[in-house]
Amino acid sequence: MKATGIIRRMDELGRVVIPMELRKTLRLSAGAPMEIFTESDRLILRKYSPVAGLESEGKEFAAAAALVTGRACVLTDNEKIVCVSGEDLADFVGAPLTAAYTARLKEQKSVLINGDTGNAAPLARGMERFSSQVIVPVLLGGESIGSVALLDERKETVFDGGDVKLLQLGAAFLARKFV
Question: Which of 76, 131, 158, 177 is the most buried (most CB within 10 A)?
Fold first, then answer.
């Protein structure tokens, strides 16, 4: 834990203002859901990510999708990578998503990119080698809460409608965990 040197007083309603510079650094906007934890005498606030709560189911789906397709599978929330298939991508868990990938998520539609067309949106810095992608949003109540993606670095890779359907099945399954 890193000290900020910032001290705030709690008001009579129990509210504490999070300073603007911290909100910008942590990309917290007005209305952002927050989780509250306690640890002995500490109060811990964390940005809420419903997808992060699906880590075990996400890992199982990613492993199964990778086994069936022979490609890497990744589950994200709207800001970071939550889980991956395979140990070779384990270092990317928790990595922030790129602006290009986040823009794809905001479109709320499935995306299929084959080969080196220049249309690939790297999930995180260091994942530029994956030029073939299938990206499917995980939708809850009409809003994107994350995505499931298949990735391949071979330029000759051809993803098809079956790959999209597989990820749509996974995304729908994960979204149903909230119903």
Answer: 76
